[in-house]
Specification:
The protein is mainly α. It has 16 helices and no strands. Helix 6 crosses helix 15, helix 11 packs antiparallel against helix 14 and helix 12 crosses helix 14.
């Protein structure tokens, strides 16, 4: 595959997770009404259940892909994902929906873990950060268009049709993987699928200070994104009354992160992952602090909310690809297991933190702003631990 084809396919695999969340945001209210859910915050569990399933299963798919290669487990996970999406069309209760969303997340875990592993198989150092940035840029197109697709579906059909679309999309991506993606893990680099081997791989990952601390920092930063996604419909529609304009504004935020990811891909080889991501984390913290202080004095004007949130999310686009690349860089020899442990930490941690932020919604943007500030400070602490208190210092010319 050419480099652009490779990046596009990796982005589509990552997009399976994005579309699973963003396309249904316009339909959360109807899903709740259809299945007898009155409390607005309870509807957020449609997202949380999926993220928890995806996070837990990553611990399984990583070692599995280290043993059997990347392609077969990846196709199996997408198959589980598609079957659960189709089953949700016929679900009779909210609890049943949550159970199937959890199972769907389990299948989707393969796309999260194995995609990162495939990129690490092929690239390392700043090249991996560049490729992951381009993957994230294309991946961010999904949040730009997915809510609008969901809104369009809701105009002409019921919420069940959203899951039919999700199923069809997954099957199309699976077909492309089956026909175009070569196996990237050679036979001689495969690890035995035994308890001893898996635990040894986990120990390698968990005892690497740099990898673990950057993964934990990313977990908290991703928690802010999940917190906004959980409460975005309540904020943009409930507080600011956007109505049918909600998908357009949501798309604008996603577009901001896509621009940041592209910017990172252009700059990372010149300035390095640490200089870019450390500066972005400090910028994220400053923007969150201004936002939190301003929100205490009352409801922010919509233009000010847009400005402060967009400022934070632009920094987010510079943080995510670099933190992931730095966490994976020392662990190329156990890429599948490493990706599973780091993915588990980021997904479960981020989903849990995001759920706490989302459930704190009280009719204002203050809990979200305080949540952003809190996770940015904690993330900065983990980075300082990883770097032994020294920021902006490249470890070698490749990273």
């Amino acid at each position: 595959m050419s480099k652009p084809q490779f990046i596009a396919l990796m982005a589509l695999l990552m997009a399976i997770n994005a579309i699973s969340i963003d396309i249904m945001l316009p339909g959360l209210q109807e899903i709740g009404a259809s299945l007898g859910v009155v409390d607005e915050n309870t509807r957020q569990y449609v997202i949380t259940a999926y993220l928890i399933g995806m996070g837990c299963a990553q611990l399984f798919f990583g070692p599995l892909s280290d043993r059997f290669g990347r392609k077969l487990p990846l196709l199996g996970g997408i198959g589980i994902y598609a079957l659960c999406a189709l089953a949700i069309v016929f679900v009779p209760s909210f609890s049943g929906l949550l159970a199937l969303r959890f199972m769907q997340g389990i299948g989707a875990a393969a796309t999260r873990v194995i995609t990162v592993s495939i990129v690490r198989d092929v690239y390392g150092g700043r090249m991996m950060a560049e490729v992951m940035s381009l993957v994230m840029m294309v991946f961010m197109i999904v949040p730009v268009i997915a809510p609008s697709i969901g809104q369009l579906i809701m105009i002409f059909a019921e919420w069940h049709m959203i899951f039919v679309v999700i199923c069809v999309f997954a099957l199309l991506v699976a077909t492309m993987v089956a026909l175009r993606l070569p196996e990237t893990l050679s036979i001689e680099h495969r690890r035995p699928f035994t308890v001893t081997s898996i635990l040894a791989g986990f120990r390698i990952v968990l005892t690497n200070r740099v990898s673990l601390c950057y993964s934990l920092a990313a977990s908290f930063i991703f928690g802010s994104l999940f917190g906004f996604i959980n409460s975005s419909q309540q904020i943009l529609v409930g507080i600011y009354g956007l109505g049918h304009w909600f998908p357009l504004v949501f798309a604008g935020f996603a577009g901001m992160m896509a621009i940041a990811s592209f910017t990172n891909s252009r700059l990372v080889k010149r300035y390095g992952m640490r200089r870019l991501s450390h500066g972005a984390l400090i910028g994220f913290t400053i923007a969150s602090m201004i936002w939190a202080v301003a929100s205490i004095f009352g409801t922010l004007p919509f233009w000010l909310f847009i400005l402060l949130y967009a400022s934070a999310m632009f920094q987010f686009g510079l943080i995510g690809p670099n933190f992931n690349a730095m966490a994976m860089e020392p662990l190329g020899h156990v890429a599948g297991t490493a990706s599973s442990v780091l993915g588990f930490t980021q997904t479960i941690g981020g989903a849990s933190i995001g759920a706490l932020i989302g459930q704190a919604f009280d009719g204002t943007v203050t809990p979200l702003a305080i949540g952003f500030l809190t996770v940015s400070v904690i993330g900065l602490i983990f980075v300082l631990v990883a770097e032994k208190g020294k920021l902006f210092s490249p470890h070698n010319p490749s990273i």
